[in-house]
Structure formats: C-alpha cells, structure tokens
Amino acid sequence: MNNRIGIWLTLIFAVPACLICFAVPGDDCLPYGGFQFICGPAAVEDLVLVPGTKWMVGSGMAENRKPGKLHLIDAGRKTWEVLYPGQNPQGDPDLKSYPACSGAPDASTFGAHGIAIRADGHRTATLLVVNHGREAIEVFKLNSAGTKPTIRWIGCVPLGETNYGNSVAFLPGEGFVATKFYDTKAPGGFASIFAGGTTGGILEWHSGTGVNPLAGTDVAGANGVEVSKDGQWIYVAAWGSQEFVRFSHGTGPLRKDVVKLGFCPDNLRWAPDGKLLVAGQNTVPGSQGGFPRFKGWTVGKFDTQTLKFTEIAKDDGGSPMQNVSVALQADQMLWLGQFSGNRIGYKAAK
Predict the structure, then answer these.
(1) Given this model, what pLDDT does residue 19 score?
(2) How many CB atoms lie within 10 A of CB 175?
(3) Distances from the Cα of 135 to the Cαs of 100, 166, 184, 284, 316, in angstroms?
C-alpha cells in the first residue's frame, strides 16, 4: 500500500545501501519456525519466478515516504539487489502497443504492488507491475541470457484515477486482468474494504478495447488474482470479506463460486503441482466489523477443481516476519514476502 494509506502500515526499517546484499544471520535475522530469512529488501509484497532460472523478482511498495523498487533475488545464493529503477534505469518505449502511456515511470514516486511474469521465448519474459506512483500497469522486458536478468521498461497501461489497483495476471494470448482494490473517489476510501460492502473487482485490458471492468465481479477488497491456462476461470482473493472467489470467464453467463476463509487472503500463485498457493494475514478475534488488527499469517493451497483448501504453514504472531502477503514455490523452497517490513522468508517445500 502506498503513502496515501501507509500511515497504519508504517514501520521503521533500514534498507542496506549495498548493491548486492547477502542474508547474514544476526540478532534480528535469525531463523524462526522452520523459516530462514533474507533481510533488507523493503516491502516485498509479491514474488514471481523468472522462467527457466533460479532468479525471482520481488515487488517493493512505497513505504516510510520512500519510493518502492523491484528486487532481484538469487534463490540459490540467497542474495538480493535492486532491479529497477536502480542507478541507470533502461527504457525502450513501445508507443504502438501502449499509446496511452505518457512516458517512463517517475522513480521518485514509483511503488510496485502486485506483479506478473510470462515467458516470451528463450531467456526473455514480460513483467507486469502495478505501480501506485501513477495507478498504472507498467510493462517491462526481462532478459536472462547473461549472468543475471536485466530489465528495461517498454510501456504502461493507465488504470484510471479512480481505480486503486492491487494485482495483475496475464490472459492467454493478448491482454491481462488486474484487480481494483477500491475506488479512490468513493466515500470511506481504503477503510471501506472492511465496511461490509463491495469496493472493486476485476479489470480487463486488451490493446483494442482498453481497460474495462468485468460486470458481476465486485468483491470486498479484490486482492490477488490468477487465471487458468485456458482463460476460462479467474481466481480472486477477496481480502476484506476473507474469501476465495472463482469466476467463470468468456464462457457464457457469469458463474461465481465462493469459499469462506478464516484469514485475509492476499496474493495467489500457481504451485508446481497445479494448485493455487494463497497467503494472507490472520486477524485478531473480535476485530471484524472495522479495520482489523493482524496477528500472524496463514499459507495454504487450493485445488481449483474441487475448491478444497489445505493449510501448509501458519504463524500465531510470534514470527519476526509479519504481514505475509505472498507464498511462492521455487527451487524446491517455499518463499514468503510481506507487504510491510524488510524480510523474505524461505524453507524447504514439502
């Protein structure tokens, strides 16, 4: 969450000024609950695996009045560095594909929330990033043919001034979907997510038609999103109502299936076994009905056919890593990111 809603999230963390930072255990970076930590990168709210590599990209939300970053994480060496914007951000605008984009993002206001990645070909990929610096989906190209991936910005898709985005996912072929977390112009603003109503839903973009809402997909705090390989199902984490929601897509009348959860689900990520990983924050009992207090977190998997949920990791609030917002399985490890804080967690995946 960016500076406009960051007051309630604000924690003081020092981000190392190194270009490549190793996870050196210390008094504040010791293992806990089976997890080890990479300490330093700020507010890695989302994580994706660079296709065909052991590299990961982590988002970085604006926090403590500082702009956010994109982080490059070496899953093997357990190191990290700033991927974008860095000291010399590269850009190659594709005005034909993204004519509504006014130019490269402003590094002083950049804030990376949800991200998505898709392989383009051998050692190349496209990265989509929800940027709260201007409420747009930024488009990047990654090249992993060298010793480590490189990145260049190529365009953006403005979401509109009333759409506060959260997550993004590719559609098969051309286009993407993004979640509208809430309406920035609506009464109540961010607090409306937990007020019991709906605040946003799914936005769909194609180059020929632009950004349009998908009718009937409104939920309370549309957060993480993923799409089935055939594009016939869209999965959404309804953060405010603590629900996992499955919507049909492009196959006739809209179908909606809802699973109630006991925590606030955040990002969704495909696991190697074809199930969906979901991570989110536990709430303190009795806090529903207003803005909740978070204590601990839950990680689990959904069978997208049966909608059965299986818990695989949980914290009761004792872990030094709180505000967990994403779980990713990569390099035979389960990785965790957080929307506020300076840790990435990892342990062997079962």
Answers:
(1) 39
(2) 15
(3) 13, 10, 10, 31, 34
Intervals of the chain under pLDDT 70:
1-27, 286-290
**Burial category of 316 from C-beta neighbours within 10 Å (exposed 0-12, middle 13-18, buried 19 and up):** exposed
Distance CA 218, CA 198 (A): 6
| pTM of full prediction above 0.85 | yes
Model confidence over 159-195: pLDDT tens digits? 998 999 999 999 999 999 999 999 999 988 888 999 8
Cα separation, 232 vs 250, whole angstroms: 6
Q: How far apart are CA 100 and CA 111, in angstroms?
A: 20
Q: What are phi and psi of 53, to 5 degrees?
A: -135, 180
Under DSSP, the state recorded for 109 is: T
Smallest CA-to-CA distance from 58 within 179, 151, 174 is with: 151
Q: What are the residues facing 236 on neighbouring strands?
A: 225, 245
**Full set of structural domains in the chain with CATH:** 7-26+35-348 (2.120.10.30)
Cα-based angle 222, 44, 161 (whole degrees, multiple of 5): 45
- What pLDDT is stored for residue 286 in this prediction? 65
User: Within the chain, how many helices (H) and strands (E) appear?
Assistant: 0, 25
